[in-house]
Design brief:
Layout: E1 4-10, H1 18-30, E2 36-42, H2 80-89, E3 92-98, H3 106-113, E4 134-141, H4 148-161, E5 165-166, E6 181-184, H5 200-220
Length: 221
């Protein structure tokens, strides 16, 4: 059986902290599904990613340059060039972000914006790179009701704009958060590196999400 790649992307600027741990828990659960392999990209390891400037070069003739190998011809030498191939190769995608002012982190938003060239009107070889793939979101907040669901819904908008199939974390006992992996560091100090590991309900929702996405990937072949 050919293995399917489930890609996780962390938008946390803090190495080994709570968002990373929630994502790692989800992918560890996903790997229990036969036929699934996983990989994690930490956006903080890609410091040279420019903001999208809305020039739409990705949708025009310049996207055909060099045989169409650049999803973003304007910034064809920055770190997104290292990420686009994994997005094209994956069968499923989990985005994970800390909750910052009720939504995704700046790292995650910058990444999202730079996938414009993967949409239906992109003109490079990465056009439709995420279409029909499986997506799910994880958010970690400082309180139980601190914007986790809205942060996940922001990720859902991203998936749907890319014509992806969105999965949640329900369907198993005690989902914790129906629409994705929703975890909190409360009541611990937010600076505690492993605070999220005390949130059994939240971590279970992350594990449920990982398994749901993996099983959906395999079911859809």
């Amino acid at each position: 059986m050919e293995e399917k790649l489930l890609l996780g992307i962390s938008g946390s600027p803090r190495k080994g902290r709570n968002t990373d741990r929630a994502l790692e828990a989800a992918l560890q659960e996903a790997e229990a599904v036969p036929g699934i392999k996983t990989r994690i990209l930490y956006l903080r390891d890609y410091p040279h990613i420019h903001d999208c400037i809305g020039c739409y070069a990705c949708c025009g003739e310049s996207a055909h340059r060099d045989g169409g190998i650049h999803a973003c011809p304007t910034f064809s030498n920055d770190d997104m060039e290292k990420i686009y191939p994994d997005l094209a190769a994956c069968a499923g995608l989990i985005l994970a972000s800390p909750v910052y002012f009720g939504t995704v982190s700046a790292l995650m938003k910058r990444f999202m914006d730079r996938t414009e060239g993967l949409l239906r009107y992109g003109q490079s070889k990465y056009q439709y790179a995420l279409q029909h793939k499986i997506g799910g979101g994880i958010a970690v907040g400082g309180n139980r009701n601190a914007g986790e669901e809205w942060t996940i819904q922001t990720m859902h908008y991203f998936f749907l704009i890319h014509d992806m199939v969105v999965t949640g974390s329900g369907g198993m006992p005690t989902p914790g958060c129906y629409i994705g992996g929703g975890a909190t560091t409360w009541p611990n100090d937010k600076k505690k590196q492993s605070a999220v590991e005390d949130d059994a309900l939240g971590l279970q929702s992350c594990r449920n999400l990982g398994r749901n996405i993996a099983e959906t990937v395999m079911r859809m072949g």
